[in-house]
Specification:
By secondary structure, the chain is α+β, with helices and mostly antiparallel strands. The protein has helices at residues 2-25, 72-75, 124-127, 214-219, 240-247, 256-272, 276-285, 297-300, 303-392, 399-405, 409-420, and strands spanning 53-57, 60-64, 79-84, 88-93, 107-111, 114-118, 132-136, 140-144, 154-159, 162-167, 173-174, 180-181, 193-195, 210-211, 221-222, 225-229, 232-236.
Length: 439
């Protein structure tokens, strides 16, 4: 007990000494509290997509596309990027006129790789020679980026005095044989534009083409022929001879490489000579791109909200697709039922006609047999009547024999014969036959 008291007294003394020492030296003693456990969350890292690469090739400047991200920066000033369904990030053109559609503002040029679409639209070098186009009620026309270059990615139609084209659907794929396979039913009528063959080589404008005309589409046939030969896409459309005959112009094919380099050199020049005023203007347009001072919208929002937005967008797109599929299935089912009804009506008509024909033949055969039977009965009846008459009356002799048998009948016969032979010389009388002398 005494030891315990001594220990407590000793501890109290130490504490008092420490307090007195702190007061004299001006120091303060703190009791260290346990700190809460911190969880380190690294800040999000934003990696800028690779910009367009510029390279010197054969004395000219061209654009090199290594991935789909290479389109992000050069196309941002002219539209916005949105996540569209299962396609991922797609580009939507900005500041376009009402009724605008792809491949409706430019002209066709014949090359050694088929028909090449040339346009003055600032995004033409990318959206008409890479990737695919599609339309949705929410976004309108949007472009799905891909890295394979071609003179044009279109489906061709011809007939009824028109030549038409429409952008290929994103589902189009290059098969193992090198041909481009696609489902023509997925291309909506609104995507087609038509011109007369004589105007095919002229500049195409939205006001000079015929659009969304189902009547013309039904009069045309699909002549699409896109194939890959030695890693080069060949876009064959209407035959050159038809265009020359209709337009009266000679079509000269030019190397497709020259047209591509010329167009891409202009793109590189625009990228390198952007003025400060234009930079400000482009910043106002490029919705998806954010600077370091203004972080992207996805960084300022929680990840869950961003995922919810993407899920909602995908769900909306899926609903639209399901609606289209249901509508298409209803059309197919309606057509099938109409065909079945028509086939049934035709079968019933043929069956009725065949039955009527069989009945007519049976009636005709029955009538013929009845007539034959009546004729046979009538013949038998007449035969019986003749036989009865022959048995009941004496045999009748010829009239001249009766007259000759009557008294004076011989003279009467001679008179009748004389009267009958009047005007004709009498036949010579036979000379009397002299009997031969006996020996």
């Amino acid at each position: 007990m005494n030891q315990t008291r001594q220990l407590v007294a000793g501890k109290i003394g130490v504490v008092l000494c420490t307090a007195v020492f702190g007061a004299l030296t001006g120091c303060t003693t703190y009791v260290e509290q346990p700190r809460p456990r911190e969880v380190y969350v690294p800040p999000p890292v934003y990696v800028e997509p690779a910009s367009v690469q510029v390279r010197a090739s054969f004395g000219s400047v061209g654009v090199v596309i290594r991935s789909e991200d290479d389109f992000y920066e050069p196309l941002s000033p002219y539209g916005r990027w949105e996540v569209v369904g299962s396609y991922g990030r797609c580009w939507i053109p900005g500041r376009i006129e009402a009724g605008w559609r792809p491949y409706c503002n430019g002209n066709w040029q014949r090359t050694d790789a088929g028909w090449y679409w040339a346009s003055d639209e600032p995004w033409a070098w990318a959206t008409y020679h890479y990737g695919r186009w599609d339309f949705s009620a929410r976004f309108g026309w949007y472009w799905v980026p891909q890295t394979q270059w071609a003179p044009a990615w279109v489906s061709w139609h011809e007939g009824g005095g028109y030549v038409g084209w429409a952008p290929l659907h994103p589902s189009a794929r290059i098969s193992a044989s090198g041909s481009v396979a696609f489902n023509i039913a997925l291309i909506a009528p609104r995507a087609f534009v038509f011109v007369e063959p004589r105007r095919f080589l002229q500049p195409v404008r939205p006001t000079t083409v015929v659009v969304n005309n189902t009547t013309i589409i039904n009069q045309t046939v699909n002549i699409t022929n896109i194939k890959v030969v030695n890693n080069t896409v060949i876009n064959e459309g209407p035959r050159t001879q038809i265009i020359e005959q209709a337009s009266g112009q000679k079509v000269q094919a030019v190397p497709v490489r020259e047209l591509r380099r010329k167009q891409e050199a202009e793109v590189v020049a625009r990228q390198g000579t952007t003025s400060p005023g234009r930079e400000k203007k482009e910043k106002d347009v490029q919705t998806p791109v954010r600077s370091e001072a203004a972080p992207r919208e996805t960084e300022s929002q929680p990840e869950s909200q961003q995922r919810a937005k993407e899920s909602a967008a995908k769900a909306q797109e899926q609903l639209q697709r399901n609606g289209k599929d249901v509508e298409r299935a209803a059309q197919v089912e309606s057509q099938r039922r109409a065909n079945e009804a028509a086939t049934k009506v035709q079968g019933e008509a043929r069956s009725k006609a065949k039955g009527a024909e069989t009945k007519a033949q049976a009636d005709s055969q029955r009538s013929a047999k009845e007539m034959e039977r009546m004729a046979r009965l009538e013949s038998q009846q007449r035969g019986k009547e003749s036989e009865k008459k022959a048995q009941g009356k004496p045999e009748l002799r010829p009239k001249h024999e009766q007259i000759a048998s009557e008294p004076g009948g011989t003279n009467t016969v001679k008179k009748a014969q004389k009267k009958k032979g009047k005007g004709k010389p009498p036949p010579p009388e036979d000379p009397p036959v002299t009997p031969p002398a006996s020996p």
